[in-house]
Structures are given as structure tokens and as C-alpha cells.
Amino acid sequence: MLDRAGCLANDRFIRQYQEWINPILARDLELKTTSRPSRIVDMGVGPGFLSRALARRFPEATVIGVDINPAMLDLARDNLAGRPEAQRIELVKQDVHALSFEDRYADVVISWSCYHHWADPVRGLAECWRILRPGGVLSIFDVEPSPEMIPYLQANLSDPEIAGILVKSLREAVPQQVVGEHARAAGIVGFEIKPFELDMAAVLDCIDEIEEPARVSEPSPVNSIAWALTARR
Ligand SMILES: C[S@@+](CC[C@H](N)C(=O)[O-])C[C@H]1O[C@@H](n2cnc3c(N)ncnc32)[C@H](O)[C@@H]1O
């Protein structure tokens, strides 16, 4: 589990390369939901950027940012401090494999870049599915393995800690075909899994919300392909 320094490296990585994606994920979720969610669980909240974008996009909702790492939750708390939307974000320490939330707790379970950490993805998915109410939306994203990117990132990224984080996640990444098998084994019905593609209408719709646009002075690690697993309970 990352200590404070590791969490800060993760924070640097997200600010430098990925923060821009969070308003887009929140808009993507809005397009996937038929009614306005009131309880959104952000699984693997990390430094808190997606939870913040969700709280902004859904002003009537409470966002529950879940993370197994107390140091990461402290960092999320620091990042959210003083922001008006933080009043509707609860940060809780839990493990996706054994959630304490009751059945039908959430309208949405969303997760970005956390799946590759799960020791038992079938169990993790089954837990996310269990806590969804009927009609609720499961929306999970993570990267495809891209072994060819590893030497490229190691050679080109100037921050070795960021390179280390990325290389680890690319090594642990689960291909979408396997994720589909996990979803079936977890009892998730009617799911869709496909490469995550940016919807340009969604991007343009939330472009003003992007606080820290990705810098282009270094190769972007987010050129790797991500997948999106979506299901309605
Ligand atoms: C790469 S970070 C992604 C953070 C955030 N979703 C983002 O992209 O900005 C993955 C996060 O998942 C958390 N995590 C790992 N295993 C977990 C588990 N079993 N249950 C809950 N959270 C977990 C980690 O502590 C870490 O904060």
C-alpha cells in the first residue's frame, strides 16, 4: 500500500496527465443514467479528482469516495478541503472485496483506474453489483495491458516515481476479454465491455470544468487504451 510519498506521486501523475478526464467521466455517467442519482460510489477514490467532478456534475447527489488506503483518503481530504462540493463527498475506508454497505445502497458505482489493484476481481465486481439498487448503473474503467509502452515510458518520463506507477499499472492491467469473464462469473447480467472512446460532444460539454489540462511536453501515458465495463442492475 502506498505511503504518503507514493500517494503524492500518484497525485502528481493525475494532475499532470489525467485530471482532464474526470469531468468527461462525470458527463459520460450522466449520459448513462436515466434518472438523477442521489448516491454515487466512487470506488478507489485516490486523490479525489473524480469524486469532485461527480459532485459538481450531480449537485443533488452525495458522492461516497471509497479507498482501502488511509493515506490516500487523507490526501483526498486535503485536496477537497475548502471546496463547496466537498460538503457532499464522504470519504470512507473500505475494501472493494468486502464492502459494509447494505444491498441496494447506491444508484451508481463508478471506478477509474482501480480494477487492476483488485486481488479478486470477481469478488470485487460482485460486491459492486450487490450494493447497486435495481436500475442502478455500474461504470468501471481501467487500462488494457500495453507492454510495448513500458520501455517507452521508462525512457521518456522525467519523473521516475510517475514512470514507476505507470509501469506497475500497465503490468497489472487486465484485458477487457478477461474482465468480461470476471463480470459473468460475478453474476452481472446484460453488461457491455468495450474500449473507452471519448465522446467529443461530452468533451466539449464540460471543457470549462477542466482545471488542469494535460501538459504536452512529455509523451502522454493515457495514450494507452482503456476499457469501459457498463451494466444496469
Ligand atoms: C491508481 S489509483 C486511482 C485513483 C482514482 N480513481 C483516479 O484515477 O484518480 C487506485 C486507487 O484504488 C485504491 N484501491 C486499491 N485497492 C483497493 C481496494 N481493494 N478497495 C478499495 N480501493 C482500492 C488505491 O488505494 C488507490 O487510491
From TrEMBL:
Protein name: Methyltransferase type 11 domain-containing protein
Domain Methyltransferase type: 41-139
Family annotation (Gene3D superfamilies): Vaccinia Virus protein VP39
Superkingdom as given in the UniProt entry: Bacteria
Lineage per the UniProt record: Bacteria, Pseudomonadati, Myxococcota, Polyangia, Polyangiales
GO MF terms, alphabetically ordered: S-adenosylmethionine-dependent methyltransferase activity
